[in-house]
Amino acid sequence: MKPVVLAGGSGSRLWPKSRAALPKQFLSLTSDNTMLQDTITRLKGTPAQNPIFICNDAHRFLVAEQLRQKDIQHGGILLEPVGRNTAPAIALAALHATINGEDPVLLVLAADHLIKDNQAFHNAIAKAEKLAEQGKLVTFGIVPDQPHTGYGYIKAGEQAGEGFEVAQFVEKPALETAKEYVDSGSYYWNSGMFMFKASRYLEELEKYNPEMLDVCKRAIDTETPDLDFIRVEHDIFAKCPDDSIDYAVMEKTDSAAMVPLDAGWSDVGSWSSLWETAEKDENGNATVGDTILENTKNSYVNAEQRLVSVIGLEDVIVVETKDAVMVAHKDDAQSIKAVVNKLKAERRPEFEFHREVFRPWGSYDSIDSGARFQVKRITVKPGEKLSVQMHHHRAEHWIVVSGSANVTINEETQLVTENESVYIPIGAVHALENPGKIPLELIEVQSGAYLGEDDIVRFSDRYGRVAK
User: Fold this and answer.
1) Is residue 274 a contact partner of residue 30, using CB atoms and an 8 Å limit?
2) pTM for this entry
3) In whole angstroms, what is the distance from residue 378 CA to residue 48 CA?
4) Strand, coil or helix: what is 293?
5) For the chain, what is the total number of helices (H) and then of strands (E)?
6) What is the pLDDT of residues 97-133, one digit of tens each?
7) What are the φ and ψ backbone dihedral angles of 68, each rounded to 5 degrees?
8) Which residue of 113, 184, 252, 422 sits 20 to 30 Å from the alpha carbon of 276, by its own alpha carbon?
9) Cα–Cα distance between 226 and 249 in angstroms, integer?
């Protein structure tokens, strides 16, 4: 069994925690691990091979770093040049998995789901694998505990082994219809998790969408390694039709089967769903961070940086980060997506980035700014190096707080240690490296007429970020 982890979602309904540059699968929302890490670690105890990961180019270093933190070995990190939905992504993984003549059973998982009962999940996997070995395309149907209108439904048909044939896939229903579904006992939530032999998925895709399969085959023929990653040709994959596995294959095939899953599952699709799955106090409140609640009920409060106090409210969501505060009624949490769309339309940085931005070499936190200056706290991991670069519009002053730095300015390199500083003039070609065994912490003061992140000309970069 080879897991395939889809890690390309945006998680916009969990703003301001989840943002384009750091979406929810890379956040610690339901445990001390990130959701991506939990997705893999919960497979411990199953006969799983090293998983294949699929993500977009912008998130590749996040995936690699989070796997490294937990010493998780992988069977390839496939980079989608452009987003084309789940059906092509899974096709790339299936083609990659069969390159050497193998035909594994694929367990397709989203990187951002919550499953509380790992043993129940393992039992469902074992049942699904038997059906997959028989040529079935298996989905996992969540045993519903309420009439939810935010999920699609699967109607169970005839018994098939320890699962069921799929009688029907149903779109997200209205509330009254959802109540009827739950009362009938024949309907399950569509989890978006699947299991099938790689060859069977490709056979069914060829039957129902041969154009998609053809493009994916031509794309995988171009795959090339790049550090931890596997790249395919952009221009080829960009021509691929955009469709989900549900529409492209599962709703059309006559080989669909479903295994029930009752394991405390949630897709963590909104702050309301996080409140539903979280532990609550005697007033129905779930809190994270430094919070004080008074005369408040059935609410979710998440404080990242500061003390957050909520008084006299009921059924609210309050989320605070370093650069944004979001307050919503629990019943209207879905409208957060409209706020995100406005941020994107206005090109505000809060759409894409947090104040603290992660890079493959470490991170930087923009702690203050003005008309002609910006102050950042920069952390460089041991042994890592920023690109060799220059700026047309800004000078920089670096003050080392802890650790040591090799600083190169116009081909001259010097060692800068704690309580020492160095100045980089406008136009100087420079680089920063941490030669030590501990993280390098420094304060960077930028000054100039333009301080945007796009005022960087890279000459060389160990992470492949130099424009070709």
Assistant:
1) yes
2) 0.91
3) 38
4) strand
5) 11, 30
6) 999 999 999 999 999 999 999 999 999 999 999 999 9
7) -60, -40
8) 184
9) 31
